[in-house]
Amino acid sequence: MANISVLLCLIITILVASGFANGSGYQPKEKVGVYELKKGDLSVKFTNWGATIISLILPDKNGKLADVVLGYDSVNEYKNDTTYFGAIVGRVANRIGGAQFTLNGTHYKLVANEGKNMLHGGLRGFSDVVWKVKKYKNEGHAPSIVFTYHSADGEQGFPGDVIATVSYSLIGDKQLSVKMKAKALNKPTPVNLAQHTYWNLGGHNSGDILSQHIQIFASQITPVDSSLIPTGKFASVKGTPYDFLKPHVVGSRINKLNITNGYDINYVLDGPAGNKLKLAAVVHDSKSGRMLELSTNEPGMQFYTGNYVEDVKGKGGFVYQPHAALCLETQGFPDAVNHPNFPSTIVTPTKPYRHYMLLKFSTTA
């Protein structure tokens, strides 16, 4: 009898780890493919595994083309990825302290996947599922692709069914529009999606990003504890290594961030809240001349310098190391479900989720 009990416990543990016991048993119906959008000399490739950006190729100041996002040679490699290269992360991006929260008097225990906390939606978040290709048009003045995913009630512990949609479009001159939307079908639930591309404007295989310049339009950050969970307070960036209100070299003060070995913090973006776009960040690589301007309607942006990327074999066999790229993850504030003073990330059947990003690429001499 004791042996049977041990066996049952083992089976339950395996089921929980794989997601079956919390309602997220994964049986993908859609095939995994690769899709390309191209306009002028800008081309972007995606896979419906995680609604992921797998490459973005554009010219430098001399017209030389390069892929400026980290990733892998094959789609199958993304299925075993632990870095979230290029993916849409959710149902709730970033961290939830203690992998739990209370909503309308009901306590929800989530699937922890970073110690006792939840990161980027749990063991199988939106980055590790197959999205349906709802629309694909690689022609005309605005080539676009639309991915959609039905997240079931109880998935990774979250309440309610959610339909998430991500639209990528090439518009104007070297501009990528990203629209993330979600609708709660039957219960209030937190939703906070983020686009987790790793950018290196010098080229994915050009080395680190420490000599590139960045400007972040944020006067405050949300400080974190030793587990990178927000304390609930706000702190001014003035006089700290987090101050990028004026352009600075990424690596100029990074050695002062010993605990995280780099930047991994949520910035409170300046500018109005709501659906209007505001400038969040500008990145410039002087060697290639490439520049990226990012605008969003979200209140926050996680600036992450790839601190935990180590010995990752990527495209063409190039091995990525710490600081090989940077992430600009526009988002609601991390752990907002446990901090009433943060902007709410709760979505209801009558209050949908809308998250917009606009990435403008250019070159300077």
Automatic annotation (TrEMBL):
Beta-D-galactose binds at N94, R95, H196, T197, Y198, D264. Residues 1-19 form the signal peptide. Pathway: Carbohydrate metabolism; hexose metabolism. The active site is at H196, E329. Belongs to the aldose epimerase family. NCBIfam families: PRK11055.1. This is Aldose 1-epimerase. It comes from Rubus argutus.
